[in-house]
Amino acid sequence: MNLVRTAMLIALMTALFMGVGYLIGGTGGMMIAFLVAAVMNLFSYWNSDKMVLRMHHAVEVDASTAPEFYRIVADLAQNAGLPMPKVYVIHNQQPNAFATGRNPENAAVAASVGLLESLSDEEVAAVMAHELAHVEHRDTLIMTITATLAGAISMLGNFALFFGGNRNNNNPLGFIGILVAMIVAPFAAMLVQMMISRTREYAADRRGAEICGNPLWLASALRKIALGAGRVVNEDAERNPATAHMFIINPLNGQRMDSLFSTHPATENRIAALEAMAGEMAPPPARRSRNQTERPATTSVPKTGPWGRDGSSRKGPWS
Description:
The protein has about 325 residues and is mostly helical. It has one domain (about 1-280). About 60% of the residues lie in helices and about 5% in strands. It has a four-stranded mixed sheet, with helices on both faces. β3 (about 95-100) and β4 form a beta hairpin. α1 crosses α5 (about 140-160). Its main location: membrane.
């Protein structure tokens, strides 16, 4: 089902790209756009992960350069039954993370310095489990290809007036077609990105909570990331807005409204879903016998894992 959905979404973005070509240059422009889209899809399939990582200046780390972070990802990948992905650190103070790669065997996960410095080990584990859920669901391929095509559509829209000004370009709709290519097409590409991200974040939240073992860790992490994303500007994301839907929280504005124009579901709604999931996972209270005396309630302790903190562990080195 994921393969069919991926093919349909890629076909939709390709058709949109061809439509922009038609509006700018008629049938000839559409054919050129089709050839360009075919080349871009093929190129994106093999190289989109490298492009996105390069856009955000991500640096690969391993067990010797970032031992704690690498160990967290390794434990989670084993928990999820996934191959070990490549691990990257983004030297940016905005707390955020994303996953990329065409399949689980060629996946990469990346977290920012701001995330690694501001979250506990349990919260980091929950965030990376969310990203591994995207890898497991094979969301990363469609998200990276969509980011590439959306950026290309926006670029074509920006140059539509320049290219469409030629009287010999066979533009069937004239100046109206140019306006549609400049305004409507990039907007439609943005809506497709939003649709892809919003429908997949809830599923990744739920599966990520299962992988790390505690939905409340991810709920707590989302609160901190949303707050930090609204305070710290991510300059690389601002320069490459087509990649915004790949992050766990919108890196552009820290948007919180669950509206049509948000690339992510509302953080409050995601947290509520995770808290409800935690309630479902909690064991039912034991039934007391009549002679059993009342005992004071004890505070539940979150499930710990091999990445749990003991109060003496160090946070880095992340930088």
